Amino acid sequence: MNLLNRSLLTLKEFSSDEIAYLLDLSEMVKAEKRKKIVKQRFLGMTLAMIFEKRSTRTRCAFETAFGEEGGHPVFLSTDDIQLGAKESIEDTARVLGRMFDAIEFRGYKQETVEILAKYAGVPVYNGLTDMYHPTQVLADLMTLKEEFGYLKGLKLVYMGDGRNNMANSLAIGCAKMGIDYVIISPEELFPDEQYINEIKEIAKKSGSSITVTSKIEDNIVGADAIYTDVWASMGEEAKALERIRLLTPYQVNQDIMDMTKNKKCIFMHCLPAVKGQEVSFDVIEGPSSRVWDEAENRKHTIKALMLATLGKA
């Protein structure tokens, strides 16, 4: 499958077959890593990594995935470059596109990564914006496939802030791959209705469903995975107390896991987690937790994405 020179801004632009291909490739590079097979497929290539926001998994995944294949990743914080300050985003994109083979961006506005992709002339990867987190969802889909052996027909329930980038991005990934997706959230934090209607149209093609509700017990039964995220995302720390008030009833704890009536139900989280808030300690540290698999799979899915889009698969 030819994904050469493609950017990843959201998963909307990728077909279900293309996502499935990336997941297969991810499994291959993970197996290579476990067997200590070294191939150096990015030898002589460079990757610009632009970060407006702090990062553990995204930075380490991109940097190690590119570096261990012989490439040279360059970390650029907004303290280091002129992005949007003395130099426009368009001009920064043109300059970096002449010097690098690909660009990763992690920051605030979705518009920024879209402008980079428009003007750079090289693949641009969205490492997180306020709207979307597509590389995380690739890792989540890989983790689900590893756990169950398939994706179509699974049921994933997201509990928490229904408007944040993970709720948005999981909706796309589930709709593309035929996973029934349920957002359980207080009504004050429901996602944009127009956006959900758009995703429902995608879900129709794969035969899956998208549900948004504030009711837990009626909608959690039969879940194969329960997913949550921090209650106050980066940049929203001032809203933390209000979020605790709204979201405390939606904490993922053992009672919630038991409500699924599915002993094989797993717990997922993009991390970092505030243990004792969005998830209880016993769940995230318990046998149903797959958060460490998700974290590792960030690296393998990101490597697969770069191999495919840089013509090295």
Automatic annotation (TrEMBL):
One GO CC term, this protein: cytoplasm
Annotated compartments: Cytoplasm
Gene3D superfamilies: Aspartate/ornithine carbamoyltransferase (3.40.50.1370)
One example GO MF annotation: amino acid binding
Keywords of this entry: Cytoplasm, Transferase
Primary residence: cytoplasm
Catalytic reaction annotation: carbamoyl phosphate + L-ornithine = L-citrulline + phosphate + H(+)
Aspartate/ornithine carbamoyltransferase Asp/Orn-binding domain sequence ranges: 152-308
Single biological process term from Gene Ontology: citrulline biosynthetic process
SUPFAM superfamilies noted in UniProt: Aspartate/ornithine carbamoyltransferase
Pfam families: OTCace, OTCace_N
Binding site for carbamoyl phosphate: S55, T56, R57, T58, Q82, R106, H133, P134, T135, Q136, C270, L271, R298
Annotated ranges, domain Aspartate/ornithine carbamoyltransferase carbamoyl-P binding: 6-146
EC number: 2.1.3.3
Record-listed L-ornithine binding positions: N165, D229, S233, M234
Top-level taxon of origin: Bacteria
PANTHER family xrefs: ORNITHINE CARBAMOYLTRANSFERASE, ORNITHINE CARBAMOYLTRANSFERASE, MITOCHONDRIAL
Family indicated by similarity: Belongs to the aspartate/ornithine carbamoyltransferase superfamily. OTCase family.
Function (record text): Reversibly catalyzes the transfer of the carbamoyl group from carbamoyl phosphate (CP) to the N(epsilon) atom of ornithine (ORN) to produce L-citrulline.
Name the UniProt record assigns to this protein: Ornithine carbamoyltransferase
Organism: Caldanaerobius fijiensis DSM 17918
